[in-house]
Write a structure and sequence with these properties.
Layout: E1 5-10, H1 21-36, E2 40-47, E3 69-74, H2 78-88, H3 94-97, E4 103-106, E5 119-123, H4 128-131, H5 138-148, H6 150-156, E6 159-162, H7 165-174, E7 182-184, H8 203-209, E8 215-219, H9 228-240, H10 251-260, E9 262-266, H11 274-282, E10 289-293, H12 300-306, E11 309-312, H13 321-328, E12 333-336, H14 341-345, E13 350-352, H15 357-369, H16 371-385, H17 390-402
Parallel strand pairs: 1-2, 1-4, 2-3, 4-5, 5-6, 6-7, 8-9, 8-11, 9-10, 11-12, 12-13
Helix pairs in contact: 1-17, 9-15, 13-16, 15-16
Length: about 400
């Protein structure tokens, strides 16, 4: 090997071309890490039998510009060959496939056989599959237990990175990983997420996603863990009852505003999503519940800015990007008091018990109609979001990877 430090990075998570939290994490970190460290050589392990994703389509992936990065492409079937071989025989060694490295970073729990003497660092985003196995399909549960074998893999790694203290605590509680082996590094929020004024009431955008004039927004993967069923129930309570509280508008006007509200559930379906659509279809307010589907990256900031309030009542998150992005856009946020979410939003959002739709409905009443509280949420949300930096995350991640190398 050369005198330069060589870091191998497993970028297989990008093969499918999705933009969920794990992909977003790597998409934001990789360009910053490569460009901020010209004295380090990066070898990027990219492998799949079929590669539908075009890496250059990702923001900032300029391989021609990255003189210190090498894309190491392979076409070994992951699911039917490499994963089983790595899990059962601990072969082939991925660091050797890419020509060797001083440290190998897995930014997601993908089974990876690494040579003795090569430092192995793994980012663990969450242990939802351990905490809430009922929210995963049988195939997904088998994927984790049979192919990924997370406990064995994490015990064998040299160091672990987590995006939250919540996930770090789970590793210590569920896997008995010592705290000294874990570093918490908060992810950032994209600079593209910001308040847009005047409000981006673009007729073409509204037509593209069937967005109404006034709406409550959920944005994320559509699956049971996100508690969208509870949100639908809260929306029904909000629509069918008038609050007796003293808010900053008269009850009659408040009722008029509420009657115009729609619920927009944006995002792509994940696993076990069918019950969410069934709940919406059976709702007495089914005509007021809109599923616009996948939202293009370039439209997400405008989507947040158009919303009256953002609700993310998830039962469990390793970090939770959407509430942070919504706060950065100047939108009042309601989210769960579970897992990492209070850690992310701090005092800048209304936190609720996700098991109580009535509590979610009450929070919606406050966020929608108490103008003083709403303005506090918006102001504190913007301030809170600014404390999460991708540049800082990249710097701290590099420091963690290079520990023991330099």
């Amino acid at each position: 090997m050369s005198n330069k430090t060589i870091i191998g990075i497993d970028i297989r998570i990008l093969v499918l071309g999705r933009r969920t939290g794990v992909e977003e994490y790597l998409i934001n970190l990789l360009p910053r890490m490569v460009e901020q460290n010209p004295d380090v050589t990066f070898r990027l392990f990219y492998n799949a039998w079929h590669k539908p994703a075009e890496l250059k389509a990702y923001r900032g992936f300029d391989f021609a510009k990255w003189k210190n990065a090498e894309l190491c492409e392979f076409s070994i079937p992951n699911r039917f060959a490499l994963f089983p071989l790595n899990a059962l025989l601990h072969w082939p060694k991925i660091d050797r496939l890419i020509g060797g490295c001083d440290v190998f970073w897995s930014p997601h729990i993908f089974n990876a056989a690494i040579s003795p003497g090569t430092r192995h660092v793994v980012t663990v985003h969450d242990l939802a599959f351990e905490r809430y196995p009922e929210y995963f399909s049988l195939g997904k549960r088998l994927w984790h237990t049979m192919l990924m074998r997370p406990k064995t893999q994490l015990e064998g790694a040299d160091h672990l990175i987590t995006p939250s203290h919540s996930t770090a605590s789970d590793l210590q509680t569920l896997y008995k990983i010592p705290a000294s082996k874990i570093t918490v590094i908060h992810p950032g929020v994209g600079e593209e997420f910001r308040p847009v004024k005047p409000n981006p009431a673009d007729p073409s955008l509204r037509a593209k996603y069937r967005l109404p004039e006034r709406f409550i927004l959920y944005f994320g993967t559509i699956e049971p863990r996100k508690n969208i069923g509870g949100l639908i129930r809260a929306f029904e309570i909000l629509k069918s009852t008038e609050s007796a509280s003293n808010h900053s508008v008269t009850p009659s006007l408040r009722h008029s505003v509420t009657s115009q509200l729609k619920l927009v559930v944006a995002g792509s379906p994940g696993w076990l999503y069918e019950d969410v659509y069934k709940a919406a279809k059976k709702s007495s307010f089914a005509s007021d519940i809109i599923f616009p589907g996948f939202i293009a990256e370039e439209d997400t900031c405008a989507l947040y800015n158009l919303a009256d309030v953002f609700v993310y009542p998830s039962f469990f998150e390793g970090f939770g990007f959407p509430p942070l992005e919504a706060m950065a856009c100047g939108v009042a946020v309601i989210t769960s008091n579970r897992s990492s979410l209070p850690e992310v939003v701090g005092n800048a959002a209304i936190v609720i018990n996700p098991d109580k739709p009535g509590e979610i409905a009450d929070a919606l009443q406050v966020a929608l109609h108490d103008s003083a509280t709403r303005q506090i949420l918006i102001t504190q949300g913007i301030t809170r979001a600014r404390t999460f930096s991708w540049n800082a995350c990249a710097t701290k991640t590099m420091e963690c990877l290079l520990h023991g190398v330099r």
